[in-house]
Amino acid sequence: MVVSRSSGPGGQNVNKVNTRVMLYFDIAQCTGFSEPEKRRILSQLRTRCDKQGVLRVVSQRHRTQGANRQAAYDRLVELIEAALDRPKPRVPTRPTRSSQKRRLEQKQQRSQLKRQRSQRDWGD
To answer: Which of 7, 33, 85, 89 could form an S-S bond across to 37 if both were Cys, CB 3.0 to 4.6 Å?
Structure first.
């Protein structure tokens, strides 16, 4: 974890207090994840990771270093959970007979309406 001067809120404090927190997490060396999980995390978060597999999270939203440190930890957990979450596969379904019938009826009504609009009354 590295702290530095923040560009966020804080007034004159911004110029003299290190409140920005940069949290580094080495996914490649972490023993808490299996190899497939590491690959998934690295592929999902590739824009936030460097070539060695180190994830970087920055927080400078809050005015205090402690609050930014907690926000960075929370964001790290949130990012890893989201990366490991697998979306449910979509089960393809077929449209019901009644929905097909409704769709065709609506198309016929629309076609008839357009046909009526295009017919000109030349009897003037």
So the answer is: 33
Residue 60 pLDDT grade (very low, low, confident, very high; cuts 50, 70, 90): confident
Q: Is 57 left (phi over 0), alpha (psi -120 to 50) or beta?
A: beta
Mean of the pLDDT values across residues 49-69?
A: 86
Helices (H), 1-124: 35-44, 65-84, 97-118
Element (H, E) at 23: strand 20-26
Dihedral (CA of 99, 104, 109, 110) sign? positive
1 CB-side CA count, 13 A: 15
pTM over 0.90: no
Contact 84, 40 (CB under 8 A): yes
Contact in structure between 29 and 19 (CB atoms under 8 Å):
no
Checking if the pLDDT of 31 tops 90, the result is no
C-alpha–C-alpha distance, residues 56 and 45, integer Å = 10
DSSP annotation of 49: B
